[in-house]
Amino acid sequence: MLWSTMIDYWRYTGDSTYNAVVVEALTAQNGGDPYGQPFLSLNWTINVGNDDQGFWALAGMQAAELGFPAAPPGQPSWLELAQGVFDILAARWVIEEAGACKGGLRWAVITDPAVGNDKKNTLSTAVLLDLGARLARYTGNQTYADWADKTWTWLADTGLVGSAFNVLGGTYAQSNCARTNAAQWSHVAGVLIEAAAYMSNHVRPPTLSNPLLPLSNPN
Length: 219
Description:
about 220 residues; mainly alpha; Glycosyltransferase; three-stranded antiparallel beta sheet; disordered C terminus
């Protein structure tokens, strides 16, 4: 989230003082195989979350959308990193479709209930939704939009997003998502609001009568 903020800082001020640090930080998060381990460093701990990896991808997406200086030679592009994480999160979702709750992303990557793996985490799912919406907007690929729709439907069907748009913290696989964590966190709602804005901009592009700020694809 910090690096996304620093990219915004550069975009709105034109001050490139910290750009090299941001590039260093984003590329340092990659593993030994940056294409096979996008935004998953070799020193990742047992309690890394799907939301953690997803937030790095959102920073990469921010860099791609705003035309931030490119990664060093030999590194994936910011877009490739964001797409790589999306593919990983989507693959983890597909595994979940065969089990409890028929979808949703767990909080932790490691399959150990002691580190939160039993929890189907609203934030992790919201990050996948946001990433899908932004990739749909940026690339025009309908598959990403379909994934955004799928994740939203799952959140609504499980009651994690209610009819009054209250956003709950998560639910539990062992209960087949019958039991929820009713805690509400503003950053989870914020991610969903951002996703909704990108999806709206994707399906209803800016016009002269509706002058939303478009995010152009510099490629």
